[in-house]
């Protein structure tokens, strides 16, 4: 079976370095808020091109805490509207609700599945205060257009970069386009820890300072509490693991792109739609997309998934139920977002990752091309 994602194979490549880093932390006697975190925060901010990276416990907290910090700083308040793509992973939306803000769902662009600037523009009301674009599946959203709209309407922009470490548009990386960005280092993400971890990137000094307090009980200085904060920290062991893996991120991304290239160039099955790499629309290279996922579409998904399993190819669905149809958002269950709903019915993710071999990718291509469609 070609696994969808082989985490063990990914981490075993760096086993010796990871163990050395782990031993260093154990022997240091310092486990929270030390040199490992400071080093990773500097390296990751450098990597993204921002002034700051602030480590937190996970990606959802990164998003929650940025919005919370903006509330503390008086830039957002209860009931303000935040525009978010309807087809995102639910965490983006949970971060908005968790802060008493109002999520405004908009349908995505039909080619990139990312926030569509025209529909974004139409969704702006007098109460709109922020935009939460998601770089879904590893492809950066149309940030030049989104930032132009944000500037024109004086809106804050929080990028959800959980799937887009290193994605780039016009030479600027994901995490450096908006006023702040949330990253997840969940083990299966492109930059994955060996447990939960996350970070915020920003070049706003005041926001960075507020976040450093919020993640630590609201305290800037020991035993002085400026805010009613939380405990959401990125611990030393995970920071040390991430520093090892950050060095290999670009190399791993190149490999993901190679696998994607094999899929895109060789899958010819007419019943299947391939991802549109927007960078390809204007240039020869596909530099923008980091292929967290390689997501195809078909109206006979169930049959295709079964066919692929029979041919030794494991696939997953990202995601089977859209947020507005979840019980958690019962208040939205009677709404219709036709494009979002069709995506959730039709998408299928092929094996993708730094340890999928070129031969395995060719086998996936053959299995996909041998699918006969509905009647099978
Ligand atoms: C994974 C993910 C998150 C949440 O990250 P966690 O670290 O799991 O909390 C948020 N948004 C998107 C788009 C994600 O894929």
Automatic annotation (TrEMBL):
The processes (GO biological process) annotated in the record are: polysaccharide biosynthetic process
- Keyword Mitochondrion listed? The answer is no
Superkingdom in the source lineage: Bacteria
Q: Which residues carry this modification: N6-(pyridoxal phosphate)lysine?
A: 189
GO MF terms on file? Answer: pyridoxal phosphate binding; transaminase activity
Q: Which residues form the active site?
A: 189
Among Pfam families, the record links this protein to: DegT_DnrJ_EryC1 (PF01041)
Task: List the CDD domains.
Answer: AHBA_syn
Supply the alphabetized keyword list. Answer: Pyridoxal phosphate
Protein transport is among the record's keywords? no
Question: What family does this chain come from, according to its entry?
Answer: Belongs to the DegT/DnrJ/EryC1 family.
Q: What is this protein called?
A: dTDP-4-amino-4,6-dideoxygalactose transaminase
Can you name the source organism? Answer: Phytopseudomonas seleniipraecipitans
């Amino acid at each position: 079976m070609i696994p969808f994602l082989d985490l063990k194979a990914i981490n075993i490549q760096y086993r010796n370095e990871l163990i050395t880093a782990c031993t260093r932390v154990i022997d240091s006697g310092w486990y929270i808020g030390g040199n490992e975190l400071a080093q990773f925060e500097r390296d990751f901010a450098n990597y993204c091109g921002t002034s700051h990276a602030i480590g937190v416990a996970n990606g959802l907290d990164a998003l929650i805490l940025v919005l919370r910090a903006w509330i503390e700083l008086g830039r957002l308040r209860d009931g303000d509207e935040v525009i978010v793509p309807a087809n995102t992973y639910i965490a983006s939306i949970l971060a908005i609700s968790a802060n008493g803000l109002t999520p405004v769902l908009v349908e995505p662009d039909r080619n990139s599945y990312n926030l569509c600037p025209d529909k974004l523009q139409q969704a702006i009301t007098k109460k709109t205060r922020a935009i939460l674009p998601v770089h879904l599946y590893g492809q950066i959203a149309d940030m030049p257009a989104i930032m132009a709209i944000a500037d024109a309407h004086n809106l804050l922009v929080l990028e959800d970069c959980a799937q887009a470490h290193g994605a780039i548009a016009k030479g600027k990386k994901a995490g450096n386009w908006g006023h702040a960005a949330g990253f997840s280092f969940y083990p299966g993400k492109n930059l994955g820890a060996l447990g939960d971890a996350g970070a915020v990137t920003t070049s706003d000094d005041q926001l960075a300072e507020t976040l450093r307090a919020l993640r630590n009980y609201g305290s800037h200085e020991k035993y002085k509490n400026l805010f009613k904060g939380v405990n959401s920290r990125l611990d030393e062991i995970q920071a040390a693991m991430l520093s090892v893996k950050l060095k290999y991120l670009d190399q791993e991304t190149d490999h993901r792109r190679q696998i994607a290239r094999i899929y895109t160039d060789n899958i010819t099955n007419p019943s299947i739609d391939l991802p549109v790499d927007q960078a390809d629309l204007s240039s020869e290279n596909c530099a923008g997309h980091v292929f967290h996922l390689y997501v195809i579409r078909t109206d006979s998904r169930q049959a295709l998934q079964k066919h692929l399993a029979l041919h030794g190819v494991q696939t997953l669905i990202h995601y089977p139920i859209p947020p507005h149809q979840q019980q958690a958002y019962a208040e939205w269950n009677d709404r219709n977002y036709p494009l979002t709903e069709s995506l959730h019915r039709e998408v299928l993710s092929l094996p993708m990752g730094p340890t999928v071999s070129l031969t395995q990718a060719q086998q996936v291509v053959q299995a996909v091309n041998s699918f006969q469609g509905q009647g099978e």
